[in-house]
Amino acid sequence: MLHESGEVAGTTFGLPHSGNIYERILPTVDVSICNQNPNRKLPDSNAIVFGKDNRGIFGGVIPNGNTHGYWTNAQDADSQIPEDFAGSTTEPYVARAIFVFDLNEAGITAGDKLIDAQFRFVFYKSNTINSNQEFNFDFHRIHPGRTGSGISGANLGVLNNKLTANATWFEFDHSGTALTGPAEAPDDYRLVRGFQPTVALDAGATHGANRWDSLGMGQTGSTAEHFGDAFGGTAQWLDFSGGVSADDINGLVSIYPQVKLSKAIAIADTAFKMDFMKAVEDARANYNNYLRFMIKFREDDEPIGGNFGKRFIAIHSTEADFDKDGNAGEEPDYAPSLHITYQR
To answer: Which of 83, 207, 250, 270 is most buried (most C-beta within 10 Å)?
Structure first.
């Protein structure tokens, strides 16, 4: 799963070191969540999707169905099972992607000097944006902690990771206790499925025992800001944000580079790399070597013109390379990965 560049004698500011160490790690969690399938877990999908699709099909990237491992799309929403109420025939579908990397797998420790960090993924499908424009796809830090209360229970994920590949739109780990309410609210789709964590759910619905705000992230798989001071206090938390205290809920993420994607860039089986230096340093300094982030289309809570409007990206998941043996030196062809170079 990892490989090392080997030791090269040298010095940094007169201090001896063993040379650069290069490691490549795969995510421990990579999963898509969907507002119109808010109680569906999708842990074994070959693709990860994030963005918006008015038709709710996402190019067939996620298989259509009425149980876990599937999303009910708009074509079959009327045949939804009563216990689930997934899908919508009239409202837009929004997908977001969630990732967790355990930096301990790279062997990097507090005394090591980070030289370089890059996040790499491979596009799964072409023609996922029906426009010639570029669009912003934002990366947001996921911060564990409980809104309005102090640390408890292993720091609510600060010292370990509670977020799993069974995450859903409602929960950071599907518990089986969430209930999806009646179908939709045509006059304001931002309220459908609880886009805003303060909005009451439809009659008969509940977000479940592992609701997102128990990790300080609202109920949409989004992130809470932390201001660098003590945990707790509702004034510290925002639904999703930027990485510094000055950012508001629509602010750019300062620890991640700005990413603009278009259909000319998002070509199937083409690789894409990003500078993740600040994000990795933030994870080392504040989150016990856990790097957690969400990817979303910036305007995913705003309308897209036209019945066939789509602004989404599909990338290969770790399942694409499930048979690769990293310990035998087999590099993944498609799986998302974090590439880290450091000195010891």
So the answer is: 207
